[in-house]
Amino acid sequence: MLSAAAVMAPAPAGPKSSLEVLLETIKKRDEQPKDAPPALPARPTCRGRLPSSRRPSLPSGVKLENGVVKGAVAEKVISGQDAKEENLVKARIFGTKRKFSNGEMLEESPYVDNLHDERKETTTFKELPSVSSRANKNGKPGVTATMDYVLQKKLRVWCSSPDATWRLGQIQSISGDYVEILLVNGEVLTLSPERLLPANPDILDGVDNLIHMSYLNEPSVLYNLQSRYSRDLIYTKAGPVLIAINPLKEVSLYGNDFITQYRKKLNDDPHVYAVADLAFNEMLRDGINQSIIISGESGAGKTETAKIAMQYLAALGDASGMESEVLQTNVILEALGNAKTSRNDNSSRFGKLTEIHFSENGKLCGAKIQTFLLEKSRVVQRATGERSYHIFYQLCSGAPPLLKKKMFLKEANYYNYLKQSACLRIDSVDDAKRFSMLVDALDIIQMSKEDQMKLFSMVAAVLWLGNISFSVIDNENHVEIVSNEGLTAAAKLLGCSAPQLVNALTTRKIQAGKDNIIQKLTLTQAMDARDALAKCIYAYLFDWVVDQINHSLGTGRQQTWRSISILDIYGFESFIKNGFEQFCINYANERLQQHFNRHLFKLEQEEYLGDGIDWANVEFVDNTDCLSLFEKKPLGLLSLLDEESMFPKATDISFANKLKQHMKGNSGFRGEHEGAFKICHYAGEVTYDTTGFLEKNRDPLNSELIQLLSSCKCELPRHFAAVMIAESQNKSTLSWYSAVDSQKQSVITKFKAQLFMLMKHLENTTPHFIRCIQPNSKQRPMMFEHDLILHQLKCCGVLEVVRISKAGYPTRMTHQQFAERYGCLLLHSIASQDPLSISVSVLQQFNIHPEMYQVGYTKLFLRTGQVAALENAKNRMLYGALRIQKNFRGFHSRQEYHGLTKGAMALQSFIRGEKARISFDHLVKRWRAAILIQKYTRRQLAATMFINQLKYVILLQSVMRGCLARKKYKCLMEERDSKASHRKVIHARKNVSPAQMCHEMNGDYSRQPVITELQGRVSKAEAALRDKEEENAVLKQQLEQYENKWSEYEAKMKSMEEAWKKQLSSLQLSLVAAKKSLTSNDVATRAARTDAAPMHVQYDSEDTLSTGTCTPEGTELKYQNHNPEARLAVPNSDRRVNAVNHLAKEFEDRRQVFEDDAGFLVAVKSGQVGSNMNPEDEFRRLKDRFATWKKDYKSRLKETKVNLQKVGNQEEKSRKRWWGKKSSK
């Protein structure tokens, strides 16, 4: 067998290319005996990485000691000129290299089966130095060459300012060790070159893939992301990873139009649709399950991104309604599993893996949802400013009245579980509308109304449990439940009696030998039992809803072929106070980060090293030490937590002390005061408070509560109890009560098992990563916090992904796959049909530069863009082949068609001729038969017509002859009558007087035709008379109707006249009463004046000696002469009299006018007076005028009364003043 050293030695004529060396190796291998083991393809000296010790042979002079290559050949290989040049390029990209962690392999790991094999195969590469060493120039790192070039060309640079920000500027001049920079705002800075970083040219501003950037330093990446974010371009590629920055507002990047564009490959901008489309196409092409892993911190938009990906996949796999069911599951699970936190208004408080199943033709045929670690504690308590799960508030706000009455529901601020955090609403969120959307979603997934009522009743029961209150009854702090609305409502909704619920929450059975002792609970224990029951009901209710969804979505899964999994799990969390939930969440994120590193860093680099290609390791943040801190046995965090949870008397402080005792030597752990500790996560340090760790990890639920649930009348509580008992019996083979009381699996152990299953599931899929980024901590749109974003980019390894993708070989195929896929592109067949030979021939044929690929032991590694070129060539070849096939098949089909056409035409001509002849014979026979039939038919018709005409002629003749006979008979009769009358006349003449004869001689004699005419006139007159009588009868009826109407109108008019008279009489009475009151007031006033001044009164009477008579007018005049105030009162009295007289006169005038108008209208109505006016309209107008005048008259009458009273009061006052003056005198 030819040794590897001979193959790797350079040829005397000059160094050969790697492809030529590989081809020679293949030829020599083919010459070996068939039973000999195959030799590995040797690497050329110019680019060869030394094979590992697991290979069959090594070059002579090469040894491996502790993983380090020694020997002359190794020195020769490492010093190859090509390696130096390539390493110089790589050194300018990567910076300082960091080796993989050499920590011990975890005893438990989801990858343990794979890692043991990989460890055996790649152990020798762990410490294997890179063949490509960094080039140094004048003792400076290789990156200095790039900066020297930038300084020499005076390009754009990033300047580090004193406030730790980067500013963009242009190099103006260089003087010594300082550089003068002109900033964008016109400011000039003088800095040292160490504070500068090269900036990308203008043409690369806002590129959609960070790989395209010339310089991948921090300010360049941030500037590129901010430039795109300011234009609402929230998606950016970073090699194989999609960066999604949360816009915190609505952006126009979604909808059916965009789905169509990405589906038809009309748009290649970075997008979630593009990632989902890539996963879908790879699933169909390769037949491998895919996964879309969405990660990021809380508030980065992971949930919305997952919904967008599901929307696109549902549109691709149109399955007549199944896609709407899959999408509606988001509405249901968000209502039950999402809540408002201090960072996010719609934070997922559980993990969710959605498997969308497809058939072989890409049709969506089902889905399955798995959930992880629902945050049960949020049901009973949470931080101030946060909310519980959305469904509680949606049910209280949006439930219809009938449902509220059935569930005894009230407003959200009535329930203790909801109002404790002082946050009941979310801005711009309508809980009532969301509830209707939830009900619609439940209907779409075909959940029955009965099951929906069960769901809402359990949610309401949890709320009412929180309103159960306790009171202390003795000195030992024992309690009893205060009978209130909460107890009654919770018992009814659960389907149990109130005493049963009271006993379950306030007592506990303790088994002492064969006896059961009932122990009363303290206040704290009772409240914990109540909260534990509420959390348990809600957690199992959530699982039940997920089972219902899976049952609905799994109807067509029997035809499934492959699936695409979308992972939406809680992001990394770090609050002021972090508890058990954050501990579990961040542990899960550590696992996901390791999966990310494993696929994008470790596995890729180890695959490069294991396949023997030239590669320099890239530095990245490895979190193996942090995972070892969590999972290592027996002194890992999880093991210690489970161990401490098993001790009944253990406390959170004792757990914290145990952690400090066993973890004090670990660099990733640091104990704090008051039961707190710090862990150095991949995303930074997080301080955890151990308060509640043990209680939440145990998740206790005593047997009394389980028995209570099992005895309920409602179906769901019994189902929950059965599930809990089944879980306990799986752990124990004891009796039923012992199984209930047995220690169940801890929360962290169960969560760890779920997490390992998740990791194993993801390992069996092709991953696609989406990194969601939170732009700022204030949840405001268009705000870009550089430090926060840079921290997230570093933590999630995006920058390292860009570097390794830019320098690495993202596309890799085995020789067999490459040959099968692209062997058809060869123009000439080669002698050797070896897959490697075919692959190399394809690469040579297309003149792919050696820098663009590397040939490994088992695979071909290609840089970005090479597969696209090969695919384009293949598509062109296939298109050409299709055109050739199309033309050939078209020509062949046309030839066959013409031959068939000729034969068919000949056959058709004979057949059609025969058919025509037969048809003609039939037509002739039918024609003859028709003629015969027509002959007989026409004869029959003619005979029938002749007979009928003959009958009609005979009938007409008979009628005419009868008429003529009657006329002749009539004439004969008239002639006979005339003769008889003539004879009578002659006889009469003989007997008549001469006077009569004289008259006859004068022509006065009767004639028979005149009599006939008179009889006709009489008959016409009688007919006319009958017509007139009929017309008179009709007119009589109309007259009766008019008389009835007139009587009705007359009655109405009389009633209106009476009403007017009554109103006028009332007004007249009012006027008379006013006159009387005025007269009485005047009389009283005058009498008072007379009594007040008797001595000054002088009468104007001629009989001055008479004392019994007086003249009032004279008295008044005298009084006026002696009293000036009296003189003023007299005109006032006259004015009052005049005003009243004026009103009386107006009343009489108006009354006369209205009576005249009404009489005239009555006369017109009765027809006594002829007029063209409409009496009804005029009567209505008269009524309106009367009402208007009446209103005005009443107001003036009232005003006159008021004025009269005022004047009377003034006179009374003046009289009093006058009397006072007189008295004083």
Automatic annotation (TrEMBL):
Keyword field: Actin-binding, ATP-binding, Calmodulin-binding, Coiled coil, Motor protein, Myosin, Nucleotide-binding, Repeat
Region Actin-binding, annotated ranges: 755-777
Domain of life where this protein originates: Eukaryota
Residue ranges occupied by any Myosin N-terminal SH3-like domain in the UniProt entry: 152-201
Binding site for ATP: G296, E297, S298, G299, A300, G301, K302, T303
InterPro entries with a match to the protein in the record: IQ_motif_EF-hand-BS, MYO1-3_N_SH3, Myosin_head_motor_dom-like, MYSc_Myo8, SH3_Myosin
PROSITE patterns: IQ, MYOSIN_MOTOR, SH3_LIKE
Compositionally skewed regions (Basic residues) per UniProt: 1215-1225
Pfam families linked to this entry: IQ, Myosin_head, SH3_VIII-1_N
Residues of the Myosin motor domain: 205-875
Name of the protein described by the UniProt record: Myosin-2
Organism, scientific name: Zizania palustris
Organism phylogeny: Eukaryota, Viridiplantae, Streptophyta, Embryophyta, Tracheophyta
